From TrEMBL:
It comes from the Archaea. Pfam families: TRM5-TYW2_MTfase, Trm5_N, TYW2_N_2. This is Class I SAM-dependent methyltransferase family protein. PROSITE patterns: SAM_MT_TRM5_TYW2. One of its GO terms (biological process) is tRNA N1-guanine methylation. One of its GO terms (molecular function) is tRNA methyltransferase activity. Keywords: Cytoplasm, Methyltransferase, S-adenosyl-L-methionine, Transferase, tRNA processing. It comes from Natronoarchaeum mannanilyticum. SUPFAM superfamilies: S-adenosyl-L-methionine-dependent methyltransferases. The lineage of its organism: Archaea, Methanobacteriati, Methanobacteriota, Stenosarchaea group, Halobacteria. One of its GO terms (cellular component) is cytoplasm.
Length: 328
């Protein structure tokens, strides 16, 4: 089976495998191969492999033993990985139990299996869970070279947004001032700080802010991060005209915070505004709301209209990248 892999001298093989595993990049459906003092370690995403490693393509043997949940079940279950936690979304308790047992029996390095028991609810943006295996809802998630400690029972976090977070943070340049209005445990803010930005993040969930501070320490950026527990509208006056970039990832109600965003925005500021709208016209409502809040003090330019993912039948999670330039 042709697969992308990291080519490394055998004596550095375990060190390299561990580094790739820490970044959740080791592919699990093919074997590590060896040839003439060289190891070939299969990876899931060659674009995410750090530049210090050599990535090549090679025919690797598929795993011959039934170690994955699909091998045990006879079908491919729908599940998400978050650190050493597997997340299910099953309405049938018997099917959820069947999948959880297969996950535990498989070769997946998993400690906990959770099934979603409610939708996201309340100001804290948390949900209820059925604990099917393990004894802790806390885990460490690795994403594009950063690691995040979090407790799914106490904070909101979606691994499905990893690509979108990377899209935004890759745009950030050293020296920028970035304000994350709904920062959670820091998945936008910490990578922004790693790129050299000065970052302020707020969240009404105090436990999320505690994890945010811990994650800033873990990733070596605590000196460039200010984490504030509270409603961003209560601190906007303290950062009036401050931001070069604002992240507004609260898609059901970000429009309610646009006045605060406009107050925080500097003379030239890019806003990443997240929204959920009907597929027939997913961008117009957000654009209209931004213009109503920002004009005439700012000239408003929509630089990018981006579909993040399908959220529900006929509903899309979208992002508007909008430039605010102070009117003369």
């Amino acid at each position: 089976m042709k697969a992308p892999c990291v080519r490394v001298a055998r004596e550095r093989g375990e060190e390299t495998r561990r580094a790739l595993a820490d970044a959740d990049l080791v592919a699990e459906d093919v074997e590590i191969d060896a040839d003439d003092g060289v190891l070939y370690i299969p990876v899931t995403d060659p674009d995410a492999v750090p530049e210090k490693f050599e990535v090549v393509s090679r025919d690797l043997p598929e795993r011959s033993t039934p170690e994955m949940p699909a091998d045990i079940l006879g079908y491919d279950p729908s599940l998400e990985r978050l650190g050493d936690v597997v997340i299910l979304d099953e309405d049938d308790p018997e099917r959820a139990r069947e999948i959880a047992d297969a996950v535990v029996e498989s070769a997946l390095p998993v400690e906990t299996v959770l099934d979603r028991a409610s939708k996201i609810k309340g100001e804290q943006r948390v949900r209820d869970w059925d604990l099917l295996a393990g004894d802790s809802t806390e885990t460490v998630h690795r994403e594009y070279g950063c690691e995040f400690l979090l407790d799914l029972d106490e904070v909101y976090f979606s691994p499905r947004l990893a690509t979108e977070r990377h899209r935004v943070t890759e745009q950030i340049e050293s020296g920028e001032r970035v304000f994350d209005m709904f920062a959670g445990v820091g998945p936008f803010a910490v990578p922004a700080a790693k790129r050299g930005a000065t970052v302020v993040g707020t969240d009404v969930n105090e436990r999320a802010i505690e994890y945010f501070r811990e994650n800033a320490e873990r990733n070596g950026v605590a000196d460039r991060v200010t984490a504030i527990a509270g409603d961003v509208r209560d601190v906007a006056a303290d950062y009036e005209g401050w931001a070069d970039r604002i992240v507004m990832n609260l898609p059901h109600s970000a429009d309610e915070f646009l006045d605060a965003a406009v107050r925080i925005a500097g003379d030239d500021c890019l806003i990443h505004f997240y929204d959920i709208q009907h597929e027939d016209d997913p961008f117009a409502p957000g654009e209209a709301a931004i213009r109503a809040a920002a004009q005439p003090a700012y000239e408003v330019t929509v630089e990018n209209r981006h579909e993040v993912r399908s959220y529900a039948p006929h509903e899309l999670n979208v992002c508007l990248d909008v430039r605010l330039a102070a009117s003369e």
